[in-house]
Amino acid sequence: MKNPKIRGGALLARALKEKGVEHVFTLAGGFCNPALEGFMETQTPVINCPHEQIAGHLADGHSRIGRKPTVCLVGPEGFANAVPAMLEAGGERSPVIFITGSSTLKRQGAGGFKEIDDVAIAAPLVKHSEQITDGERISEFVDRAWVAATSGYPGPVHISLPVDIMFSSFDEDAGRTERPFNRTNLLPARAWPDPTQLEIVLSTIKSAQRPVVIGGHGVWWSNSEDQLASACAKLRIPVFNVPYHQKLLRQRSEAYLGLADFHQYHPSKPAIQEADVVIMVGGRLDNQMNFGNPPFFPKEQTLICVNGSHEEIEFNRAADALLLSDPGAFFDALSLLDNNWSDWFDQQVQRRKIWIEEWNAHLIEEQAKDEKIHPLQLSVDVQAAMRDEDWLVFDGGNTHFWSEIGVSIAADKGRNFAGISHPGSYSLLGVGVSLAISAKALHPDKTVVLISGDGAFLSGGLSIEAAFQENLPIVVVIDNNGGLDCISQQQERLFNNGKHFATDFRDIPFHTMIEGMGGYGELVETREQLAQALQRAIASGKTACLNVKCKGVISPIVAATSDKRDKASIE
Fold first, then answer.
1. Are 490 and 569 in contact (CB under 8 A)?
2. Sequence-separated (6 or more) residues with CB below 8 Å from residue 328
3. Confidence grade of residue 564 (pLDDT, cut at 50, 70, 90)
4. Mean pLDDT value across residues 33-41
């Protein structure tokens, strides 16, 4: 009796199921039908999205919150739509597996239906991009992509499966006669530090007078944030977070002081510039860190980079000392030191207190000027009306920047969210709704609130249909200032006439849009209306929108980086 035959798409689905994939996102297309049939047969949940970019962002959101690979499945033209999601996922090291049902392999290069060189386009945006050229090797290609996505520093990968292979029939055990025979999800390899180099790094830290730790993506993806918090709380070392990355430490963590961003968190500047030793763990010396250079990191300071992969070690060659080590292993070794830097740590805590007091006083002055809500006041009041263990998401330009400041103020008042998420290092507008839906999907018993700029919501608001379709109610609070305020404020400092251009919106009734889709909507025009409106939105049990009229106020980071006319943008 002959072995039963299955399509290539079903082989693909089975290989991913074997790896443990729990979430697949798509905009169903004909090229992908055999894979969709395979996912249906393996009982793998698939969410059909209103746009391929949204499918990519939802996959990214689920990956970065759940810390597990997910799948975004699209056709050839859908691949083009999903490219921005690849960019965003790459910036956050999110191990999304992007799969393209591509044009026929048999006639490749001859102008096949919807032919596109997806492998070449994806290559600069992902860790690994490859086309399956033999249906017998589908499981092997999935295994290769999976290892690339989860090893070293994680990140998105791309597999292109030509439509003729997708629809062709193969044996169920095709390609399984060679090693590895076990193609389940094995734990990725971790780098353990060289004892000699580790001792040099620890000796440098031990002799420091004013050490600082900056935590990056590698800490999150290695599940080492608890070890970071424990070690630095014990030793009283201040911990800062690289900008644009979801918060490594819960707000109640004693060691965590805020962003390593001189504009959004002013006290980080004296802390980092006065430190004699800075230890950056799981991060990169990129533009956010001024490439490791002065004045961000003074020349006389010792800069140490600890990374769990050789790729990032090579990226950080500018550091004074490098250590290849899993972040958790490093923090375990660090915690064994018997030092205590309490005076230095307490100084940073006091600086934070003064900074927050100054902002609170500023908000009182601003509120007295007019009835329109200050965007920082909006963020502070929304967070005050939420509960501990809720999820907070924010999205936008100035809205994002003001909300970063609002998080520190809310934490000082005791607020401790279960999680905080927002756009990554590419500042891609419009991902907030998808991230909020992902948070709700993975934590259905939690309230999820998104604070979004009006421009950000217009960029990605269509993704809210997935919240209705999947019965995942979220609350969207829109900071409505009538335009792309972050850009218009840059223009007013750049243009000779001091005006802005092509950045205004009409008065858009966002709340009635959501009501029309079956949700709850409310217009908020004064600060006094906000708290109760938010409670009504949450109590409705529906996906809800508060359309909040806010005044446009330039955020510190935009003001600091766009006040010179020779600046083309934020640098």
1. yes
2. 222, 223, 224, 227
3. low
4. 93
pLDDT band at 545 (very low <50, low <70, confident <90, very high): very high
Are residues 562 and 263 in contact, defined by beta-carbon separation less than 8 angstroms?
no
Q: What is the DSSP letter of 473?
A: -
Q: Would you say 381 and 530 are in contact if contact means Cβ atoms under 8 Å apart? A: yes
Q: For residue 438, what are its two tokens? A: 């992902």
Locate the DSSP E strands across 253-401. 256-259, 277-281, 302-307, 321-324, 391-395
- CA geometry: angle 71, 392, 149, nearest 5 deg: 25
pLDDT category of residue 570 using cuts at 50, 70 and 90: very low
Per-residue b or e along 74-96, where b marks 16 or more CB atoms closer than 10 Å to that residue's CB:
bbbebbbbbbbbbbbbbbbbbbb
Q: What pLDDT score does 246 carry? A: 65
Give the pLDDT confidence of 217-267 residue by residue, as tens digits: 999 999 999 999 999 999 999 999 998 766 777 767 889 999 999 988 999
Q: Do 449 and 503 belong to one domain?
A: yes
Domain region containing 73: 5-171
Q: At 246, which CATH number?
A: 3.40.50.1220
Are the C-beta atoms of residues 242 and 302 closer than 8 Å to each other?
no
In a domain, 537, yes or no: yes
> Residue 108: pLDDT band by 50, 70, 90 thresholds?
confident
Domain shared by 144 and 237, yes or no? no
Return the SS3 of 74: strand
Q: How many domains does the chain have?
A: 3
Statement to judge: residues 300 and 420 lie in one domain: no
Domain check: are 219 and 252 in the same one? Answer: yes
Using one digit for the tens of pLDDT, what is the confidence trace for 273-332? Answer: 999 999 999 999 998 899 999 999 999 999 999 999 999 999 999 999 999 999 999 999
In this structure, the answer to whether residues 554 and 453 fall within a common structural domain is yes
Q: Are 543 and 506 in a shared domain?
A: yes
Cβ 53 vs Cβ 81: under 8 Å: yes
Token pair, residue 267, equals 């006290």
Contact, 448 vs 436, CB < 8 A? yes
Among 32, 39, 11, CA closest to 175: 11
Q: Contact, 456 vs 393, CB < 8 A?
A: no
